[in-house]
Write a sequence for this structure.
């Protein structure tokens, strides 16, 4: 999927919501656990209930790997189900991979060739040759970690050389490796006003924002500082949607939660004259 | 496996060789490709031929993931085969994982609980809470990336704050998270004399050194600057051993290559009075 197509979908759906399919098997409603492929059955129902409000899905690979080979099958079935049924939805493998060149090439093959993911999250620590093998696929994307939203982000990401923090260096240097058409950045929104400076470094790129709640100020702040002329944001919500309820109606509730966020997003898109 | 036991194995085998099982399916001798589980059959024969000279194996997970769920089964069979047959050998999942806390916990479960790996390589970018979930298992290890041996290491790992490079900060800060009994570091040996300063920061820790050739000066330099009183080094060789030959005798040749390195290592261990 290219940049224009992604923006078209955002405009069409009045949403820039990414639903995180962090489908931890222990948290899946118990009545689904007798199924042959519990994780896939859960995802399928979540996807059918939320697709209308969603422009992207982001399965975090850890929750699949923790079930071994079976989990990999569930992941594979999930991405194929989305692409077969909702082909305009962008699907990100949240895998945080990265290794030396010939090894990253194997990871790229796993996610972008053998499975129909549109994008994969990549960690920048090992530099250019660890990232570029993921950029060799037409209309596929790298979502590079820049600033994460966890506490540990403070340990290294703010390491400061002559006024340039590590995450800013990642944003700056990596722009030589890809384009706005094949690279996005993970930017944690713990302090939304940081997006002012981040947007100076990457005005046009899409940013994937984790950890924004369903309601309240945070989405407002993120859009205020983060939106650009092509939206340029994917805002992720995981547990707040997929595990909002554990009854037989879990999917219906997930759909309602997704809709609530979409309605909020629609408001911001209008305020910024993007729709 | 604990620190003392690892050192005992090194002393017993006169070796600190780690064999990298980067078992790329395209490079496996063609006569093995009719087997039901090609990668595992290849690994099994490599392991049987090299175990005598080896204290550690390190499958790089990318080469398994690129075969999807089937590859995960091969990885699982491989680590179980090593642990069942050669229980004193240390097995490292070269996975370079790392995510927010509850997600890293899932990766830890995948490799240290569901599979009997002794250790997993972890990337430091996301800081403390991305690393500590891997440290909760008794006698299991984190091998944290500090300085890698690829070209891209220059992009961020030397980012310098007040005289402290990023990889040095990783070595320094992360010592608060683990101990010499559950944390090692990946240190690329492109410039062996850098080990002088690295040893000042981490005098006692084990270091995993990638990219040292079978012969010549590099192993000599690495041991000169890197050995400590408990050896403190695992030196990895992958393709130089496992893909040294592609005939029906590939395993025998792999064994010879491993032995050549072991003999060289034995010499250095004697020179440094460790055996």
């Amino acid at each position: 999927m290219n940049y224009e197509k992604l923006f078209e979908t955002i405009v069409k759906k009045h949403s820039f919501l990414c639903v995180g399919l962090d489908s931890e098997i222990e948290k899946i409603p118990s009545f689904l656990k007798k199924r042959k492929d519990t994780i896939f059955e859960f995802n399928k129902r979540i996807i059918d209930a939320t697709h209308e409000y969603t422009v992207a899905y982001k399965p975090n690979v850890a929750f699949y790997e923790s079930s071994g080979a079976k989990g990999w099958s569930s992941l594979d079935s999930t991405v194929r189900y989305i692409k077969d049924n909702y082909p305009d939805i962008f699907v990100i493998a949240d895998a945080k991979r990265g290794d030396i060149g010939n090894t990253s090439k194997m990871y790229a093959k796993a996610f972008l060739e053998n499975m129909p993911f549109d994008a994969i999250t990549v960690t920048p620590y090992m530099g250019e040759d660890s990232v570029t093998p993921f950029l060799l696929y037409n209309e596929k994307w790298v979502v590079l970690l820049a600033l994460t939203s966890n506490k540990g982000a403070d340990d290294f990401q703010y390491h400061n050389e002559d006024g340039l923090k590590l995450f800013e260096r990642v944003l700056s240097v990596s722009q030589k490796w890809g384009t706005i058409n094949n690279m996005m950045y993970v930017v944690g929104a713990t302090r939304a006003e940081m997006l002012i400076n981040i947007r100076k470094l990457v005005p046009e790129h899409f940013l994937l924002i984790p950890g924004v709640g369903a309601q309240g100020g945070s989405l407002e702040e993120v859009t205020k500082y983060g939106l650009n002329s092509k939206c340029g944001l994917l805002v992720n919500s995981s547990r707040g949607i997929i595990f909002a309820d554990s009854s037989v109606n879990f999917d219906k509730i997930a759909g309602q939660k997704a809709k609530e966020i979409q309605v909020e997003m629609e408001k911001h898109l209008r305020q910024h004259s993007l729709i």
About this structure: The mean pLDDT of chain B is 95. Chain B touches chain A through 54 residues (CB under 8 Å). The longest helix of chain B spans residues 250-271.
